Amino acid sequence: MTTKELIKKAEQLFKEKKYQEIIDLLPDELLAEHNSAELYAWRGRAYNGLNSFDNALENANKAIELDGQSYLAYHVRGYICHEKNEFNKAIEDYTKAIRINPKYEDAYYNRGVVWDELGELDKTIEDYTKAIGINPKHAYAYYNRGNAWYKKGELDKAIEDYTKIIEIDSKYATAYYNRGIAFSDKGELNEAIKNYQIYLDLTLEENDYWTKQAKANIQELERKIKSPDYDDITNIVDKIKEALIFEEDCITHYTSLSTAKILILKTGSTFRISEGAFLNDTSEGRALFDFLTDFHITETTNDKTIAEPFTEKPFIGSFVPKTKHDDLTLWRMYGKESGTEAKGCALTIDREKFVDAIKKSIKANNTAENSLTNDDFTFYRVAYLEKKNKKTHFLIPGVSTKTAKQLNELMSELSEEIKKVKPEDKIIITEKLNEIAYLFKSADYLFEHEVRLIIDGVGFAKGIDDETPKVFIELVDIRPALHQITLGPKIEKAEEWASTFNYYLKQNYENLNTKIVISHLPFK
């Protein structure tokens, strides 16, 4: 075949996602014979499709060496840089591809993806718009632009883009899912339900994270439609959660040395969190209901012998700010090993890397790759209930006076709304309140400055330990997000453990600069 015929054949195979066939079509001897930059670029793109990035990079560089004006080669290299999280280099190469060929839609599209990851939503939208201008039927560009509009709070524009995708491809399932979320946020609840139901109809054979979320979203919307009280309380609960959001760069988790060994040294280990029913303190989740004195599932409040119906609880991850990574009281309370205080570890984790890893894990293990989610895996500060002179007040360490005042006003508003709840709605209201019940504790625990990750568990497989007993969900490997390891002041052979953790991480996690410190607090 001539060079042009080979290029045409490679392009066709790429459209069919037959990446290995492209590589087989273009062996080294043939490429050396034709000496074509474009053929090297196409083989590089095929290697990208197989996630063989070193081979892809070698081919892209060879193409650029042969022809510095090969826009396809720059595009291939930009894709590799993106996969390696070298975002600025990716932007640079995509921009070079666009300068060489201003009509190359894929470069605009992929540069838009990078801008999105960098949080540059205006630039994201601009690039997707340019890709659409070149190809008005570019469904992926409409889809991602719709997601960008959604992130900016432009719900009507998001819905418009999702609708455009559906006009192009009526079976584009995730467009219905995301349009359902946008309609829900607009308050058009029946429209949202219709879209979630179409999504479920199109994914009839699936039973993954997103289908479970869609079913849960429908149930939630039906409750809002049926019960105005539920809708009003949901709105207050959402505002309370917003007031308690924790946005510092790192969070610290105290644990035993034996658990730390598993999380750091054992292949395939993941960070797991348990349902709220299994937290160490049996009074957990009670502070909120103690405050809401007029709300009880059972009619009688004084007789503790009356059976109460079981309600599902969220899954809880317990943390503290990184400034508390070496705290005497926390070593005593939570940094234990086999019941012995201060022999545990404090693992400080990069919050954004941890959350991104959870989202990527969901996408990797489920069919819908780019669905929006109602649960963005947010961390929240714990508020502490203080009672003085028959008055109650909530204290929130680390927030402004304005935020603390706002929370207390919301809690008073919640208390008033709760009084209106009808008896038949009490169970569903309790389930809604459980979303925030574990964000409140007694002021006796104020010293903790606790931070929590609250996950409803929908879409996650539930692990069951029938001996403990305990129900839990597994999240992700925390090692790539591990910022620091603090060894407790009573750990024996602390230097040896520090060395073991250090060299294991260096050998197995390239470019991970985890700091390891040994506490020398005067623990008695």
> Largest sheet, described in full?
10 strands, mixed
Shape: globular
User: What helical percentage do the residues reach?
Assistant: 40-55%
CA-atom Rg in angstroms: 27 Å
Tally of extended strands? 13
Hey, roughly how much beta strand do the residues contain? Answer: 5-15%
Report low-confidence residues grouped into runs of 5 or more. Answer: none
Structural class: alpha+beta
- What's the domain count? 2
**Helical segment count:** 22
What's the average pLDDT? Answer: 88
What does this structure look like?
By secondary structure, the chain is α+β, with helices and mostly antiparallel strands. It has 22 helices and 13 strands. It starts with a helix and ends in a 6-residue tail after the last strand.
In short:
With 524 residues, the chain is an alpha+beta fold. It has helices at residues 3-15, 19-25, 28-34, 37-49, 53-66, 71-83, 87-100, 105-117, 121-134, 139-151, 155-168, 173-186, 189-202, 209-226, 228-243, 257-265, 286-291, 328-333, 351-364, 401-418, 426-437, 494-508; strands at 250-255, 272-275, 315-321, 345-350, 379-381, 383-388, 391-395, 440-442, 451-455, 463-465, 470-474, 482-487, 515-518.
